[in-house]
Amino acid sequence: MFRVENLSKRYKTGDHALKNVSFSIDAGQVVGLIGPSGAGKSTLIRCVNRLVDPTEGSVFLNGRPIARSGSELRRARRRIGMIFQDYALVERLTVMENVLSGRLGYVSFWRSFARRFPQADVEKAFALLDRVSLSQHADKRADALSGGQRQRVGIARALEQDPELLLIDEPTASLDPKTSRQIMRLIVEICRERGLPAIINIHDVALARMFVDRIIGLRAGEIVFDGTPDQLDHAALTAIYGEEDWAVIHNENAEEIETTPHVVETDHAVAGMA
To answer: What are the GO MF terms of this UniProt record (predicted)?
Structure first.
C-alpha cells in the first residue's frame, strides 16, 4: 500500500503548492491525478519521489517512510518506477540498453559503465520487452522508434527496477488517440497483473475516465474530489476546474466508449502499430 499523510509544500514566497494532502492507494489500483495547470499535480509526484522536499507531511510505501536524503532515499527511489511524458530515453542507446538502465541502482558503477549486467537482469529485460510487444526491436536505437514504442520502452525500463509504486507523468500527451488508449490499457493491465499501485498525472479527463480505477482532483493544492470515474459528474468537474459546459466531455467520453471495439485488443496484437 502507498500512503500520503498531511503533505504540504510551501515556497519561500509563502505560496502553497500543496495543502494538507492525504490519501492511500491499494495494491494494483491505478489513480488518475487531474486538475488545472498549477493545481499541484506535478509537485505532488515530485514530493513523493523527493525531487522536491515537502514542507510538512509524510509518504509511506508498504509501511516504510520515504526518507528525505542519503542512502535511504536512494534505496527508496529504487522502489519507485517513473514513466515520463518525454520518455527520457538515451536516444543513441538500443532499446535493450535503455531497459537495462532500470537496474542502474542495483549494480556497481563499473558494471553500469561497461553496460555488463547480470544474466538474470538481461533475461528479465527480454521478458519485459515481450510483454510490451517490443521484443523484435531490442537491438534498435531508441531514436528509430515511434512515440508509442518509446513510451513502451519507458514502461519496460520502469518495471525492470522491480518497483513497488509507479509514478506516471502525462504518458499520452505526445501520442495520437489510438496509441494513447493502447498505452493506458497496457499500464492498467500491468499494474493489475503485478499488484502495483500507480499514480498517473493526466490532463485528458475523458481518457482517465475510460481507464483508471479512481480519480483524485486537485485545485490550488488541495484535494477537491476523490472518487470513481462514474462519480466525476458536472459538480465534481466544476469543483476541480471551474464552471464550463462539462456535458461536452461526458458526450465525448460516451462516444469514445461506444466506438471502442468490444473485443479485447491485446498488446501483442498491436505490436508495431504504436
So the answer is: ABC-type phosphonate transporter activity; ATP binding; ATP hydrolysis activity
pLDDT at 107: 59
Backbone phi, then psi, for 154, in 5-degree steps?
Answer: -60, -40
Residues 1/197, Cβ–Cβ less than 8 Å: yes
| pTM: predicted TM-score of the whole model, two decimal places | 0.84
The number of residues making up the chain comes to 274
Question: If 0-12 CB within 10 Å is exposed, 13-18 middle and 19+ buried, where does residue 202 land?
Answer: buried
**Yes or no: is domain 25-49+70-259 CATH 3.40.50.300?**
yes
pLDDT for position 243? 78
Amino acid at 239: A
> What angle (nearest 5°) sits at the alpha carbon of residue 89, between those of residues 35 and 109?
120
- Collect all residues with Cβ–Cβ distance below 8 Å to 138 and sequence separation of at least 6: 94, 95, 96, 126, 129
What residues of the chain score a pLDDT lower than 50?
108, 110, 257-274
What whole-number distance in Å separates Cα of residue 235 and Cα of residue 98?
44
Q: How far apart are CA 46 and CA 118, in angstroms?
A: 31
pLDDT at residue 248 in the model: 61
Structural domain boundaries of the chain? 25-49+70-259
